[in-house]
Amino acid sequence: MKRKALGSAMMVLIGTGAAHATTLVNNPDLDIQGTGVSVAEGGIGLEGLGAGSRDITVDIGGPVIKAYLYWVGRDIDCEEDGGGNCVVNEPYRDQELLFNGEFLTGEYIGSEVNISAGSGRKNNIGYRADVTDIVADQVTNLGAGTHTFTIEDGDLANNIAILNGAGLFVVYTDPTETGEFRVLAADGLDFAWHNDQLAAAKVTVPVTYPYVATTSARVGDLYVFSGDNDVARRDRITISNNANINDQLVSADGETFDTAVFPFNIPAGIGSTTVRLVSPPEFPSSDSILWILGAIRIPVTCTDPCEPSDACHTASCDDVDGCVQTPIVCRATNPCRIATCDPVLGCVESPFPCTPQDACHTAQCVGLNQCVQTPIPCNPVDACHTAACDPVSGCTQTPTTCTPSDACHTATCDAANGCVETPIACNPVDACHTATCDPVNGCVQTPITCTPSDACNTATCDPTNGCVETPIACNPVDACHTAACDPANGCVQTPTTCTPTDACHTVVCDPNDGCIQTPITCAPVDNCHRAECDPVNGCVQAPSPCCGDGIVDDGEECDDGNNADGDGCSADCMDEGECVVTCNAEVVVVEPGCGECDGKVTKLTLKYNGSYAGTIKVKQKKPWVKVFEGMVAPGGTFSFMGADDKGTLSTEISIYVNGTLKQTIHTSCSQPIGVGSVFGKFEVVAGESRNGGALCPIGSDGDDDSDTDGDVLKIRSKKAVLIVTAGDETCTVDLCALVGNGGGGHGDSDSDSDSDGHDDSDSDSDSDGKGKNGGHWWAKGGYGGNGGWGGNGGGHGDSDSDSDDHHGDSDSDSEGRDGEKIRISFTAEGDCEETHAIIDIGCDLVDVIDGQIVDLVCDGSDHDSHPKYGHGAGNNWHNVNWGWHKKGWCWHKAPKPGDGDCFYEFVDGSGHSGGDSDSDSDRW
Which residues pair with 629 in a beta bridge? Predict the structure, then answer.
């Protein structure tokens, strides 16, 4: 049997082709010829494979020569390069499969793009894998017959839209077939569909299979593997010199896959066959064809006589080379004979020569064309010799050298017994040593170690008498210890116990003099007591006249019960004079904390917890734009920001991994989101929202009041003054003056609002505008104009096209000092009566006790609306949420209208903004 590989020049392409058409290309590994060469094929549909498996069954009747697995499918909305062209970045989707449990990465053999009306770009793609070893091993182990092979998805996370199916093509030798056959195959990916928008893709490129013409007609077999076929659609296979085959691609192997076999005729004198698959424009509709393999099997016949050239050759007919001469292999009839070939006589035999290789061997021919060498045995003459064979002289005798096994023996040789060993005798040198024999060093003297019987003796060794014991002497270390010998522990020092004579002495032990008594010193606890020592009870305290006990004694001008200065009565009980009261207020920096999601998410950092690296793409809704794309490894993080007109991520984002939608995340703040939130394989590690700033960890309120000494007052009024009174003394602080002059805001026009009481003009104001200290931002021209809260910069309010009474979300362009608050305190020193402090904030007075600010309740519904600006009594929204006082405005139900009691805060000089438009908001 022979294998022939045809060059690429033998694959002929018929027709002009088109820009988007591809063709099947000759596979030289599948150009095979020989006796009994046969084909086994089978296929299975793979649509909806998922995590399951499918089986391909084929009938293989003999040893496997070559086996290929093909699979084909369609990638809808294909991956594109920067120019909008479909690209294949390997390993591409569904390029990896499990075949009989073994992992395969298929070879990409072709793709073709089509654009179907209304369904977008599709990349039709084909793969193949050489599975010869897998198939051949199974046939070898189980024998010829029916064989089943299992297919599974090799990467569930990396799939094309439709995987049509797979086909197994096996070339084997059928031992029952005596004829010569040739198999030729072309593979790749050629697409045809008459309904496609690309006219060039209506038919496949024809494939021509060349062979040697014969004088007689023959019948061959055509094998077609094709995907995306439908039984209800029209298709056609054209074969040169044969009638067309119509409507036979019927998805016989699965939902959209065929492995079909068709017989065809080869007329006499014909040297090639051309095959083409057609999607005809005929009723009811054309079939979509993904042609991945076309192969033929034809019988081989020679037209001329074929005779051997001499007695050393046989002749056989080859479909390509004609009569082929094959040398005869001559085999000897006897293992000890040599066979050669004579051109006239054919195979002849001669004896196989056997000669000993040296004086140590004999030679004899005993096996298959080999001379066997047998060693000559050499034996020693006695136990004191060794025998060896010299290749020149033959057997030789060598005297044995006896070596003792170690230093504790001597060795001699006995003719009958060979080497014999005798032990060496070792004796100690005196009573203080023992003697032993060391295998390396011979006799070794080891000193005896003498151990005393207990800890009260020492032991030494006498060369004549051996070990001798001597008692040890124990002495105290000083006058504070006694000494004695304990058999277990040796000399033991015991501390002396010293006891004082009474409660007015302490006792210590001196190392030289022993126990020494020392009188104790008693001290009064304060200047209101005297101290004495009682021999039984020790130090006792007795009352004594003093300053600070609340009693005016002789020599004292006052006694207020303490020893502090600055409170009207000094530390030595002298009158300090009049009361002094001091007010304090300062601007302090508050470190920013975090907040809950408010006003939609503007920025996110996500951690990817997938098990493999992939290209991650993030798109946001409204507008539907891409905000991130890049390769991310497992455990890696990636960040992105919002892209709508307010810088937010809109209401939802979609995350794709390798082109497949894996997760959607709500970013409208309508569902919980924060640091630590987990969405599938993605975890939030950082983020920000438009109104809430940095996102808090899930379960945290984000509040950071570490810099405040009490409750926080939030003030929205034109007046904020701290007033402290103590007796006749008063001090005041204008708290609003600390925040500086407010910058003006501006309100843009409100195109459809006439009844909200806000001027439609745009009164843009810079930081040096008409804002007033502590001013409210309600005035002319929307919620901006004259009064904007602000220090160094002003805000602005944009229009809200669908809101009658309110403005939109805030959009601050302030240059104010964000993150600052006012901290207040007061002190009263000297001879003061009751001290009282209040904060006058225009709409009410706030009591301040010991420097701590307490809550204020202000019910806006008890006050009339201000008629000047259109907020009449009939306007329920303003009646509920705003209260008018002669002293100013009080913002009710802070921090947003509708949440409860009045809530005030000392603000810094930063400008308060107006709001951007918000079409779905009817509140601030």
Answer: 617
CA distance 46 to 227: 10
* Contact (CB, 8 A) for 585 and 573: no
Q: Cβ(19)–Cβ(145) under 8 Å?
A: no
Consecutive 10-residue averages of pLDDT for the chain (924 residues): 33 31 88 95 96 97 97 88 82 95 95 68 92 97 97 94 96 94 96 70 86 90 96 94 95 94 96 94 84 96 69 75 80 80 89 84 76 87 90 89 91 90 91 92 92 91 91 91 90 92 90 90 84 89 80 79 77 77 66 81 94 91 91 94 92 92 92 93 94 86 44 53 75 69 34 36 34 28 29 32 34 38 66 69 51 37 29 27 30 30 32 32 26
- Give CA–CA dist 170/135, Å, rounded: 8
Would you call 671 helix, strand, or coil by DSSP? coil
* Cβ neighbours of residue 867 closer than 8 Å, sequence gap 6 or more: none
3-state DSSP call for residue 331?
coil
Q: Helix-strand-coil percent breakdown of the chain, rounded to 5? A: 5, 45, 55
User: Is residue 36 a contact partner of residue 1, using CB atoms and an 8 Å limit?
Assistant: yes
482 token code pair: 């006694």
In a 3-state reduction of DSSP, which class is residue 868?
helix
Distances (CA, A) of 262 to 105, 295, 707: 31, 11, 88
CB-based contact 826:581 (threshold 8 Å): yes
Phi, psi of 728 (to 5 degrees): -90, -5
Cα dihedral 895, 900, 901, 902, rounded to 10, equals 30
Please give the radius of gyration of the chain, using alpha carbons only, rounded to the nearest integer. Answer: 54
Element (H, E) at 136: helix 132-142
Cα three-residue angle 510-514-520, rounded to 5 degrees: 65
Backbone φ and ψ for 405, nearest 5 degrees, come out as -70, -25
Phi and psi torsions of 133, nearest 5°: -60, -45
Q: How far apart are CA 124 and CA 191, in angstroms?
A: 7
Beta-strand pair 12-13/107-116? unpaired
Question: How far is the CA of 729 from the CAs of 321, 570, 578, 846, 847, in angstroms?
Answer: 127, 20, 9, 19, 18
Length of the chain: 924
Q: Of the candidates 44, 225, 229, 68, which has an alpha carbon nearest to the alpha carbon of residue 152?
A: 44
User: Model's pTM, two decimal places?
Assistant: 0.39
Question: Smallest Cα–Cα separation from 108: which of 363, 292, 369?
Answer: 292
Give me the amino acid identity at 152: E
Q: What is the rounded end-to-end Cα distance, in angstroms, of the chain?
A: 90
Name the residue type at position 776.
Answer: H
